[in-house]
Amino acid sequence: MFGFKKMFLIFCSLRLLGGVYLLEEERAMGKTGVFEKIFHLKESGTTIRTEFLAGLTTFISMSYILFVNPDILGAAGMDKGAVFTATALSAIIGCLLMAFLANYPIAIAPGLGDNAFFTYSVVIAMGVPWETAMAGVMVASILFIIISFMKIREIVIDAIPHDLKLAMSAGIGIFIAFVGLQGGGLIVKDDSTLVTIGSFASGETWLTIFGFFVIILLIAKKVPGAIFIGLVASTILGLVTQIIPLPTQIVSSVPSLKPTFGMGLKHLGEINNFQMWAVVLLFLLVAFFNTAGTLIGLAEQAGFMKDNKMPRVGRALAADSGSMLAGSVMGTTPTAAYVESSAGIALGGRTGLTALVVAGFFFLSMFFSPLLAVVTSHVTAPVLIVVGILMAEPLKGINWQKFEIAVPAFLIVVGMPLTYNISYGIAFGFLTYPLLMVASGKAKKVHPVMYALFFVFVLLLYILNTVN
User: What residues form the membrane-spanning segments (predicted)?
Assistant: First the structure.
């Protein structure tokens, strides 16, 4: 059985490669292929070969999510095998929607910030069962689709000050890095100081350190797929040193979705109190900003922006919200546009064909679930730390000279890791911003939506404080 599956995967890979180069040959001979008709490659100044390489590069750069997502959601009590499959399938759906709806070279998969919020803020901190929390994700997904079609999403996003958006992104990054430092054994709890440095007598800790340095050195050398390479290198070292047990197999059938599929739908009736509606709203807000900021940044990089607007942004948002709903049904947290798509764009990816290629590789990856057993928390910890570092980059764009901006931005950034709760960090910033703007005589500069959000977060903070 192992041999048949391995041969099947090799056949699929060769078929995919052969098809790409055959179509590229037809293009060179002047024939108009199906990809040209769908993705308008010539108009975008790209080729099938370029799009394929861009898709492969993007996939390698973001494929760590296949192992990190099950690890994080597994901490919430979810079945890792089912989450692995749900992760791959939601990424496939998101990339296909992005390819055919929006025709952008942008990949979609479950977001790191969203899964961290789900596990550590909702399930662990608030004590909400993961099945009920997944129902919250499903409701948020439905609302997400509605507000995307009604363009409410753009209205709210425009209302929130740019500095606070930057602070939210950076705060989530620092929170993720803190989770990684804990998971890797570099930071441990302490009765006197709350946290302290971990033990360097542990082989697992050194495995985390090794992976971290491999990744940062490769990124410094601008090596494509540095995060994925670092993850593989750490795994190999763990296997060689016997810190990680050898897997019994590499290729297997796709893990069943049964442990997680439809659980959110079955528990929709539990979204019946203030606590759960607060969770829904927070899921919506976190997902709200994840994709929007990434889309704009990637569009700037690829040169898609026209008159400070992103063409087909509505379709791109529809792709994101559609995959988010599909993911919630299968059993994974909200999806988001991946900043790692910039690696493929840098190689020349300019159309949805890049996203289509990414979807193809996610499909092939579904047959390698046994590798989950060797990708431990000490292997994924360096990934979380480095991603957190990369997400902290927006800190430079915050106007720290203005006190009424610096205070809410700072509270958002430090509030998330120090309270171990993303929602508290957001609440701190959204509560202090309008108050300070009014105190500094700038009340008219505050968008009415921000005043409305002030009262929303007063209620949310009360609810969260009551249930904890």
Answer: 52-69, 81-102, 122-146, 166-188, 194-219, 226-244, 274-296, 345-364, 371-390, 410-436, 448-465
Pairwise CA distance, residues 126 & 63, whole Å = 30
| Closest-CA residue to 46 (of 351, 410, 303, 333) | 351
What pLDDT digit, counting tens, does each position of 394-424 carry?
Answer: 898 899 999 999 999 999 999 988 887 777 7
Helices (H), 303-373: 313-330, 341-346, 352-365
Global pTM exceeds 0.85: no
d(CA 90, CA 270): 24
Per-residue tokens: 88:
């791959």
Cβ burial, residue 323 (10 Å; 0-12/13-18/19+): buried
What is the residue type of 70?
P
Q: What angle do CA 80, 284, 154 make, to 5 degrees?
A: 135
Tens of pLDDT, residue by residue over 124-157, are 988 899 999 999 999 999 988 888 777 776 677 6
pLDDT score of 311 more than 80: yes
Domain boundaries, the chain: 34-393
What's the angle, vertex CA 252, arms to CA 247 and CA 254, rounded to 5?
125
- Contact predicate 307/77, CB 8 Å: no
Contacts of 347 (CB under 8 A, 6+ apart): 50, 53, 54, 57, 224
Residue 308, CB half-sphere, CA atoms under 13 Å: how many?
Answer: 0
Question: Which helix (H) or strand (E) covers residue 91, if one does?
Answer: helix 80-97
56-89: per-residue pLDDT in tens? 878 877 888 998 899 999 999 999 999 999 999 9
Token pair 């919630």 is found at 328
d(CA 128, CA 76): 10
